[in-house]
Amino acid sequence: MAKRMLKFVTHPQILPEKRSAEERRQDFGEIYQGFALSRAEEQSSRCSQCGIPFCSVHCPLGNDIPDWLKLTAENRLQEAYEISSATNTFPEICGRICPQDRLCEGNCVIQKDFKSVTIGAVERFITENAFENGWVEPRTPLHELGLSVGIVGSGPAGLACAERLRSRGYEVHVYERQDRVGGLLTYGIPSFKLEKHVVARRHKILEEQGIIFHLSTAIGEGDISLNDLRTRHNAVFLATGVYRSRAIDVPGANLSGVVDAIDFLMASNRRGYNEDPKEDTALHAKDRRVIVIGGGDTAMDCVRTSIRQGAKEVVCVYRRDRENMPGSRQEVYNAEEEGAQFEWLAAPEEFVGDAQGVKAVRVQKMRLSAPDMSGRRSIEGTGETTLLEADLVIRALGFEPENIPEIWNQPDLAVTQWGTLSVPPGGFQTSAPGVFAGGDIVRGASLVVWAIKDGRDAADAIHKSLTKDHMLEAAE
Ligand SMILES: Cc1cc2nc3c(=O)[nH]c(=O)nc-3n(C[C@H](O)[C@H](O)[C@H](O)COP(=O)(O)OP(=O)(O)OC[C@H]3O[C@@H](n4cnc5c(N)ncnc54)[C@H](O)[C@@H]3O)c2cc1C
Ligand code: SF4
């Protein structure tokens, strides 16, 4: 064991520096700074090099975390990058936006008495350092296989699948209905969590690798049908994500000024490219009293975006309490630092307004019931209501899949009871021969790291299926 490790007793956990709340309210830049080399080495050396590393077990990609922490502590940074990038297609992105407190870091064994190793920040450091040193290169194939795969959707699932198949020698075409690649990395997640040049830098490397992108090209709904793709390519991977916002069925839900989180965030991200979305004023929080409904990370992204846009005040309304909200605690803390207010245990009953638009939200105070056998506490109304003034109400209650078989006219594409595409457990093959699927369109709204995992594993499944089919064809 290297002398440098097991320093958690002497070296305290130090998080990456965070910009002051006052400063970050003014812009959309990332709020955390990266580690400097000495800090990354020091923080890596806190790892206890467990025999069974629970951090790796709880990383969806099974990253060899203790190995790259040790290599970083020893200043063997190129090797650290090679090990880190062997299991993760986009480590610089996961290092920034994985909810580490629920995944790797949340399972670090030293955190019981000492705080966890700052795994995400070190992962980000390793990859940023690799970019600076020119070690991140496109993995061009040694030979071409003469087989092609069409990928629908350029979010993390589609891109991870594309990268892996291309490195094996497939001709890979990615079809994307938006004008930029990245899916929610580009148009969903705000820049204060993930600056867009980070995604664009990856896009460039993927292009250099030989992946062919067809942007502003919607499959199924537009000119090109899924059947067209099936005839063009040896296999198709569907990674179209989930975009239909969950509705809220209360009076006034159709008033102007009541908008969906995804529309609000997409407009904001487009503005970051100096574009001026058509609905600019309708989807802008400047000088407005904003109410965001929901308690997940998307709600927090809306709250914090509104603050940066210059909202008069921002209130997040959630029907449970702080302890029972689904979003990350850290994100709530960051939002509070930036000036957001929270109405816990409050559920909207009515959006109040007139022809000019929404003016207020009537909320009912809720209470939590006693825990049931499983420990879960349900909520019930108290009957007490309050009126909260608002000029803009953002619904952030989660996402559902669009009805793909119906809108794409593909009745043979089986879906689950939740509307996600149906694949066998742990598999990627849909009910349509030669058509595979992964990411949110299979899992439902999930995480970037799971989408990357699906993209990589689906590439392996497609490769297995095509090389088997190919060998059979050759034998015939
Ligand atoms: C606001 C918000 C914040 C989030 N923050 C985080 C976070 O901090 N950390 C985290 O881990 N996860 C976060 N997530 C979740 C994460 O972004 C998703 O789980 C992940 O992006 C899913 O990847 P995907 O590739 O399956 O789908 P997506 O990223 O949704 O990509 C799907 C792509 O398919 C394209 N597409 C759809 N239909 C068609 C079609 N017919 N033809 C062509 N292209 C099509 C879409 O335009 C899109 O580009 C967040 C999600 C949201 C909404
Ligand atoms: S990919 Fe995510 S869960 Fe895995 S080590 Fe990196 S930050 Fe942790």
TrEMBL record:
GO molecular function terms attached to this record: 4 iron, 4 sulfur cluster binding; metal ion binding; oxidoreductase activity
Phylogenetic placement of the source organism: Bacteria, Pseudomonadati, Pseudomonadota, Alphaproteobacteria, Acetobacterales
Identification of the protein by name: NAD(P)-dependent oxidoreductase
A Pfam family recorded for this sequence: Pyr_redox_2
FAD/NAD(P)-binding domain: residues covered: 149-455
Annotated organism of origin: Swingsia samuiensis
Highest taxon, organism lineage: Bacteria
Keyword terms of this UniProt record: 4Fe-4S, Iron, Iron-sulfur, Metal-binding, Oxidoreductase
InterPro entries: DPD_II (IPR028261), FAD/NAD-bd_sf (IPR036188), FAD/NAD-binding_dom (IPR023753), GltD-like (IPR006006), Helical_ferredxn (IPR009051)
Limits of the Dihydroprymidine dehydrogenase domain: 24-134
Gene3D superfamilies (UniProt xref): Alpha-helical ferredoxin (1.10.1060.10), FAD/NAD(P)-binding domain (3.50.50.60), NAD(P)-binding Rossmann-like Domain (3.40.50.720)
